[in-house]
Amino acid sequence: MKKDPHRYDDIIQLKRPVSRKHPPMPVADRAAQFAPFAALTGHGQAIRDTARRAEEDIRREESNEPFEE
């Protein structure tokens, strides 16, 4: 199914609608809606913990200490 590239020609030049009931949202508030958030809470700490354990294992291996499990 091929889409018609002119299907919106009748509305493309229209001004955007403006609500009569609701005032426009301030730009700062609009930007806050798209601010990053912590989707993976605790993920960064888990990575740091794994890196710390790996570094400890490397030090033990270099010093011939036994590994802890």
Which key phrases capture this entry?
69 residues; mainly alpha; 2 helices
Structure description:
This protein is an all-alpha fold and 69 residues long. It has a domain at 41-69. 41% of the residues lie in helices and 0% in strands. It is built from 2 helices and no strands. It has helices at 27-33, 43-63. The chain is elongated. The termini are far apart. 0% of the residues are buried.
Short description:
The protein has 69 residues and is mainly α.
- First-last Cα distance: 60 Å
Would you report the number of β strands?
0
Shape annotation = elongated
Compressed to H and E, one letter per element, the order equals HH
Radius of gyration: 28 Å
Q: Strand-residue fraction?
A: under 5%
Helix content: 40-55%
The stretches of 5 or more residues where confidence is low (pLDDT under 50) are none
Mean residue pLDDT:
86
Please count the helical segments.
2
Biggest sheet features = none
Helix and strand content put the structural class at mainly alpha
